[in-house]
Design a protein that fits this description.
With 337 residues, the protein is of the alpha/beta class. The chain folds into 2 domains: 5-139, Rossmann fold (3-Layer(aba) Sandwich); 146-336, Zinc Finger, Delta Prime, domain 3. It is built from 17 helices and 5 strands. It has helices spanning 5-13, 29-43, 58-63, 67-73, 94-102, 123-129, 145-158, 165-174, 179-193, 201-207, 213-225, 228-240, 245-267, 272-277, 288-297, 300-317, 324-336, and strands at 21-25, 53-56, 83-87, 110-114, 135-139. The longest helix is centred in the C-terminal third of the chain and has 23 residues, at 245-267. It starts with a helix and ends with a helix.
Length: 337
């Protein structure tokens, strides 16, 4: 069976003992590793225990197709449950898996298959997502924005770090999509902020530089200042760091929403410097003068047009088959020009 998203969390903490084969797969390799490690530890406290664990490869099964069933039939000393890990098997292991599911040994061993991204035609997926109660598949997809916000908040809360919605939203846009990389950046941020404290935008600038926060801020300010050449260089750098076009567009949207609000306050008679000071969350002190200059450059009508273009671009890049990177760059450079 294929576990639906709503049931995955419960299964990871209390897996059904009747399930003898678990396939963990998907495009988010970091999330797949986390889930596989969690399941492995629930089965065997010490995954390095040679009497209770065995690691197999696709080549080992290809050389000896009966090896998989033999390992599943073996008994651990003391009668404890054994864990057999099949790492990056590829489709070549599918026949051995099908044979195992058709003739499962009576032993209490668990087969944990850690695969990469498998398409719908995968025979490994077909075997584990079928009707047999002996196997289940756990997909690990890259989270959408709402899920990322929840994950970020949960991780920081577990580290005793308070996080507001504005900070979580920035982190959701700039952190890498891979769960392991994201967790690593959040742990670095937690150490910088310190247990019991609240994370701020300034903390992100200081501690999450590797995730592209600094480049994103530099980019949106370059666009607002009309620095087309610098904007093009920063877009290339962000793409090289695998920053998603949607994340870049949303960073630009946030910037122009703030410009729009402050410009509206200016049009009511407030000075540009005072309008900047009233922005929430506060403008990073290094960007205060640049933000003030941009308020004088962008009229309220121009910010509205810019936001319309940015929202239209986000909707377009989400469509299948769209050259999202090119469209994102074209939109941003057009605004800068």
């Amino acid at each position: 069976m294929k576990l639906p998203a709503a049931r995955i969390a419960a299964f990871l903490t209390n897996p059904n003992p009747a399930v003898r084969v678990i396939l963990v797969y998907g495009p988010d390799a970091g999330l797949a590793r986390e889930r596989a490690a969690q399941l492995a530890k629930l089965t065997v406290p010490d995954i390095n225990d040679p009497f209770r664990t065995a690691a197999l490869t696709a080549s080992a099964i290809a050389e000896d197709p009966a090896r998989l069933r033999d390992e599943m039939a073996a008994q651990a000393l003391g009668g404890d449950r054994r864990l057999i890990r099949l790492l990056n098997p590829g489709e070549s292991a599918a026949p051995a898996l099908a044979a195992l599911l058709a003739d499962m040994p009576n032993a209490d061993s668990l087969l944990l298959i850690e695969a990469g991204d498998l398409d719908r035609r995968s025979k490994l997926r077909a075997a584990c997502e079928g009707l047999t109660p002996l196997a289940c598949a756990i997909p690990c997809y890259v989270e959408d924005t709402a899920q990322r916000l929840r994950t970020i908040t949960e991780i920081l809360t577990s580290e005793n770090i308070r996080v507001g919605r504005d900070v979580a939203a920035v982190l959701a846009d700039i952190l890498p999509p891979d769960r392991s990389a994201m967790r690593s950046e959040l742990e670095k941020l937690s150490l910088y902020v310190g247990a019991g404290n609240a994370a701020t935008i300034e903390d992100i600038h200081a501690a999450v530089q590797d995730a592209g926060a600094a480049e994103l801020d530099d980019l949106v300010f370059a666009i607002g200042a009309g620095e087309t050449k610098r904007a093009a260089q920063l877009i290339d750098r962000l793409y090289a760091e695998q920053t998603a076009p949607v994340a870049i567009l949303r960073a630009a949207q946030r910037h122009f929403v703030r410009l729009q609000w402050a410009r509206a306050e200016m049009d009511k008679g407030l000075a540009a410097t005072e309008a900047v000071k009233r922005l929430q969350p506060p403008v990073f002190w290094k960007h205060e003068s640049a933000m003030t200059a941009q308020l004088r450059r962008w009229s309220l009508k121009r910010t509205e047009l810019a936001l319309r273009r940015l929202y239209d671009a986000e909707a377009a890049v989400k469509k299948t088959g769209t050259p999202d990177a090119a469209l994102c760059a074209q939109t941003l450079l057009g605004l800068a020009a």
